[in-house]
Structure formats: structure tokens, C-alpha cells
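Notes from hallway chat w/ T.B., transcribed later so I don't forget. T.B. wanted the structure written out for a chain they're using in a teaching module, and asked if we could keep both sequence and C-alpha cells in one place. Agreed to drop them here.
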Amino acid sequence: HRDLDRVKQLVERYSIRRRNVVLLVSGSRHRIIPIEELARPTAFGFGPQDRRIESFTGEEAMTSGILRLTNESSFRLYWTQGHGEKNPKNENKRLAKQLRLDGYELESLDLQAVKRIPEDARIVIINGPRRTFLPQEIELLKSYLLEGGRLFLALEPTVTTGLEALAQWFQVEPRDDLVVHRARQARQGGEGKILLELAADTRVLTNDLAKEHPVTAFLHRRNIGVFLPEARSLTSASGPLEGNFRVWPLIRSSEESWSESSYREEEVRPDATDPKGPLVLAFAARRYLGPPNES
């Protein structure tokens, strides 16, 4: 049974312009969840009557909607732009959609156009820049971190951006290298035979994740691996702890990998001077205001 008069009132009050939606209301705030966010159909069939439900996603969508309504503070993620960074709004719309479902708002950030990082930034994300950051941009990021800000920094291999010095400041040293490992590859041999041979491969697939750190514990418990098309290795920076940071290795490569600094050559192969795997591919860094138990 439907109370059509009540439905008409809600449609008019909340400016609902489509059919088959879920309306969530909390005080003066509301959120409309379309039916497409509640279930994922299969891609098979010639018409709507032939499609089947592949998975139910309504729990995620409803939880996300409730979180966004009941949390007074916004969950805004700021993606830097202007240096060739990857932005999920343009290059990974599936990720952008999932982040919105999880209750986050995605904003672009031009560091040259602001004097400080917005106060509502839950985290600043620098994802694979291809061009150099200006010194004043790096100082802006430092000030943000000193005030307790959060930063996700993903540096591409074979590219220098000036952010290497920022990473060193919180005790992470990015190597100028390319992580390579020996992988079995098939090729056509004589008489129709398929031959397996070892060849250098820059693609990294690993499940060597930190099992106790909250960033990777979820993946480790479920034995979910991490795939990186290319990666550079990292080490803990030596020298005085200027910012009073502590670092934890999160992701490591396999034992068959090595750090290749001569990646510009046509053929790469491990030699005696190349650091061997496992190599650290990701660190988490945390700044402490006093002793390590007073963060």
C-alpha cells in the first residue's frame, strides 16, 4: 500500500526528479540514493528483462548515506592538480564513485592558488605527479603536516618532482630506481611448442603487507594482494629526526625483485650492486609532538 499523497509531498519538498529512489532524511539534511546504487546488474542479456542482479550493494549505499547525514563535519579529500597528477574524477571514475558512496567529497586543489590548505581537508592526495612542484608549494604542504594534516603521496618511478625532499623530511627516502623482478613468460617455440622463460618484468603483484598496521591489516587478513603497474623502492631516510616522525613499512616486493637504477638502458638485469628484494614500496609515517606515545 502506498500513501500517494505523502509521496507527492516528499517529491515536491525534496525536489525528487526520478523514480525508484531511497530517501534518507535527518533533520534539515537529506540524501537521495538512486536504485543503481543499491544493486549491480550483470552485463548479460539483450534487454532489461534479461538482466540479473550480480551483487547487492544497498548496504554500502545506505551506510554511506547515513554517515553523510549524521556526521556534521564534511569528509573532503583534496586532490592536487597542475603537475600532471591522476585525478579519479577524470581517470578513475569507479574509484571516485566508491569514495562518494563511502561518504567523501572530492575536491581539486591548486597549491599555487591558495595560501594554506583548506581547514576542512581530511587528507591531501598527490597521485602520480609528472612535473616539478615549486618550493612554495612544498612549504605549504609542510605547514599543513606540522598542523596535524594528513597526506597521501604516490610518486611515479623515473620522474623527479621535488617531492622527494618532502618525503625525506618525514624520514622516507625514495630511490631513483625501477623495481624489477624475474617473471615466467611464455613464447612460441619450434614445432608449435610453448616455451617458458624468465624475463624482466616491472609489474608488481605482492601480498607482502604489514599485518598490524590499520592501512593494510584489512587486506592482509583477507590475503588480498596489491598490483602496481610500475613502482620505485623506498628506504628509511638516515639523519636526524627533524620532524619527529616514525615510519612503518606497509608493502614489500617479492624476494625475486631488485632495485634497477639503470632502467634507461634497453636491457635490465640484476648485478652485484643492485639492492635485492624484498624492497619496501610503501611507508606510513606519523609525526609525534613529544615522546612516541604522545602523537
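Follow-up for T.B.: Residues 43-47, 194-198 have pLDDT under 50 and may be disordered. Might be a good example for the class.
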